Amino acid sequence: MPEDDVPLVAADDIRARIDTSTPHSARFWNYFVGGKDNYEIDRQTGDQIKEIFPGLVDVARTSRQFLGRAVRYLAVEQGIRQFLDVGTGLPTADNTHQVAQRYAPDSRTVYVDSDPLVLAHARALLTSTPEGSTAYLDADLYQPEEILKAAESTLDLSRPVALMILNTLGHVEDPAEARELVGRLLAGLPSGSHLVVSDSTATSEGMVAASAAYNRSGAVPYHVRSVAEIAGFFDGLELADPGVVQVTRWRAEENDPEAEADAAVDAYGGVARNA
After folding, report:
1. pTM of the predicted model as reported, rounded to 2 decimal places
2. Beta strand spans in the chain (E)
């Protein structure tokens, strides 16, 4: 059965945790990338914000393309076979494990998220090749040590791991705390591991206004940051070329027919190695 046709049946305990009265970042983002796993409140909020700043749709779409290029780089050029994706969001096309296993079928991926709707969908859709493995952890970014301990059932933490944190760190209000959380996760990974980060940035008045409107909606706030603050997550690591850049410009020429290298978006990202 194709993955898109797998029935999604949420357990009662998961269903009870789903709040349809306020927008949620995973469902909101799912709406922006053309998904169907969202509620009316998410679509209403999304439409209101699109009127303020239509460019946010481009941020969502091109950030997803950045994920694909970053995973390909790690699997093909760096030989990475293990991925820890924190703040997974709702499954859509070309999730981390799908891209990795396209190039290396034995890749192993652990997804981490605390949203109950994401949990229900992940259990049904995030399947693996026979050679590899895919698992899901019901946890969040504020539990680094617990994440690492639980991930050990799927990943070998004595071997390099790619830590993926995309469009998630903005939910941590204090930049210093966000850096600390990233550092605690990296501390549990060996030399040769990689960090992949992307987030929306306060690089236009439209994005700043969109962020403010979103935060007034009742959803868990998302704080857009400066490019320098995004770059700060990579302090002490070896940045891969071209460094921390707009997500549309990160290796956009490499086997991505949908890449829009000339498009300017309010989202920056990078990939770096832990030496």
Report:
1. 0.86
2. 82-86, 108-113, 133-138, 162-166, 194-200, 238-239, 245-246, 267-273
Distance, in Å, from the CA atom of 135 to the CA atom of 233, rounded to the nearest integer, reads: 26
d(CA 256, CA 164): 19
Say how far apart CA 145 and CA 272 lie, in whole Å: 21
Rounded Cα gap, residues 197 and 166, in angstroms:
5
Distance CA(259)–CA(242), nearest Å, equals 15
Q: If you write DSSP's letter for every residue of 65-88 in order, what string do you get?
A: HHHHHHHHIIIIIS---EEEEES-
Q: 50 or 189, which is more confident?
A: 189
User: Phi then psi for 40, rounded to 5 degrees?
Assistant: -60, -40
Assess contact for 100 and 71: CB atoms under 8 A. yes
pLDDT tens by residue, 32-88: 777 777 788 888 888 888 888 888 889 988 999 999 999 999 999 999 999 999 998
> If you average pLDDT over residues 131-160, what whole number do you get?
95
